[in-house]
Structures are given as C-alpha cells and as structure tokens.
Amino acid sequence: MRRNWFLLLILSFWTCAPTTQLARAAEPILVELTVTQGDGSEKVFQGKSLAHDKTRCLLMQRNGELADITLANVKSFRQAAPVFRPIPLVQVRDDLRNEYRGQLEVVAAGPFVVCGPAGTVAPMAALVEEVHDAFRRFFTRRQFRLEPLEFPLVVMVFPSRSDFEKYATADMGDVPSTMRGYYSSRTNRTALYVDQPKRVTGSQSGSVGTATALGGTSDAATVTGTLIHEAIHQLAYNYGLHSRISETPRWLSEGLAMLMEEESMLHDTGAGSAQQRINRPRLLRFQQFSGTRRPAQLLSTFVASNESFESMDLLDSYSEAWALSFYLAENRPQDYARYLKQVAGRSPSERLSPSEQLAEFQSYFGQDLKVFESRYLTFIKGLRLDKVAAR
Asked: Residue 155's closest CA among 111, 118, 210, 196?
C-alpha cells in the first residue's frame, strides 16, 4: 500500500501539467512501469502518464498505444529518460516491414503508414494522404484549432475477412459480422480488410485507381468508403477534435466523420454553397427517415445519450448524426468548434448524465431546442439531391 501511495506521488510529478499563459508545461518524462499480468508474468511499459487516480494510470506509449494500468499490479517503476519521444514514422514503417515480411507490403504517405496486401497499398496510401490534406483544409477553413500530430497513423489492411477477424478479436474481443473496419482509440490504429485484392501498376497506383486496385467492383467502393470514414476518425482523434482518453458522444464522432466520407469531398475547395458539400447517401436516408418515421422533437434525446443508436435503425441514426453535424459545420462553425473542444476536454473519469449532456449542448446552441430543431430541419429539407451531380 505504501508503494502505491509513493507511485501516486511520482505519477503526479510525471503527468504533464496543462499549459498556462504564464509558463509552458515542461516536456513529459519517459517512465517505465513493470506490471504483473493476470497469468503471473511481467510486462514492461514505457510511456508518458496522461492521467491517474488512486487505482489506475493511463499511460501513452511511444508507439501511440494507450495502456490502462492497475497501480496495485505495478511491481517497479523508474524514469527511463528525461523526455518522452514518440517512435519516428520511419521506425514504425520498418518495424511493420519486419513483422509482416513476406506477408504484407508497407508504405508511408504523409503522416500515415499503410500495411496491406501487395498491389493495394500504394493506392490506399495515396488515398489516405489525400484524406489528410482535405481534412486539414476543411477544418482550418472553418477556423478549428487542430493540435499537432504526435504519432504516425497506422492503417492495417488485411487480405481476407478471416485475417481481419483474427486481428480484431485479439484487439477488441467480439467482432460484429457487419463490421468492415474500425479505428481504435486504444491502439490508435485503423484496421479493415479487402477480399481478393488485384495488383495494380503504373498509372493505377494513384488515389483515382483505388477502386480498380481493389477489384473494380461494388465491394471495392465499400472498402474505399470504409477506409475514408475510418481515416477521418483517426485524424479527428489525433488532431484533438476528439479525446482518446475521455468519452465522446457517438453522434458527434460519427457525424463529423460523415461530413467528409464521400470521395468527392477530398477535392472540395470551400467555394460554392452547402448544397455542393452534401453527403448524398446520408441525405437520401435522412429524407426517407424524416418523412415517415422520425419522432417529433427527436433532438433532445439524440444529443443527450447514445441510446438512439441502440433503439433506432442504425442507418437512421447515422443519417441524423450527419444531418445535425452538417448543419452545425455549415451554419454554426464557431459554436461547433467550441463544443467539440469542450467535449474533448473532459477528464477520463467524467461521465455526464443524459440531462447534463443535454444541458451542455444547450449551453452552446441555445436553450430553446424547439427553435433550434425547427431551423435545423428547415435547412436540411432545403437541400436538394437533384441539384448536385451524382458522386
């Protein structure tokens, strides 16, 4: 017990202090914890302490992976280096090449390292690099504050569903049968799969050839869409729009990702009206949903908890999340940015009740939700699919 209290004292010293106007926080220290596992074995963790309480410590490791450590299981601890330094992108790339030598190809592009079947990796790497550039343009145009990227962004692409399930099961447990890919805030990796990839060469290796590289089928379009959507999640969590250590409402994270998930948005210049930036499949679904089965005054329950994603049809929930996020991004960008910052700044232990979460939303977008919802729905209903060329 005495050792735990001493460790708490040391962790308090090692944890990064918030930056103030008077002084800049000292660079974090690289710490090393030797932890006894459930089977009696020992495992060594190195990283920086992000947060802790009397029983747990959240440690950010040098590869960008989070470790949730029970303090009672810490056998020993020490300062491993005076300054925490992430593993460089080149080393991450080389480590993956060594790990998957002869099995998967590895390509670095921008902040991404993509690991997957030979012949698909180059076009996928080019695509996620485009996603990154478009992401920065989209949010900086709206004056969102983006934190500096700290870690290389790893994307794992597996050559079959069975390979993907093996990886995902070890990572997250049960894997839904409908899951095509996911981003993990714990590992900071995106993972997905593509069946029977087709090797491409030459001019097909750019992002325009992505669907061709995946076989040129409707399934290829699904894989491309999955890659874009999950890469946006990965960027949002790494650029600080969401927090990797605290809870983010599902409508907020999914809605943001859907703002840019259509491939045409990668070339959006910001010119023109909101009509030019709609997500056609999500708007079509929302039109069907709102015209027949959308509950009256849904908004108050939708933003108060994740319950709607459990009780409603999932595609209806996604369409509502897109529509609300699109309205905020196009009409209330400053309030939207401030709200995202507020949610991302919650502590890891903070759990808001539905009423508290609703009140937080109202504090940024107005107390009268009936008026807000009326304006929001009027705006979305004014969007026309027939005014935009199919994308």
From this structure: 111
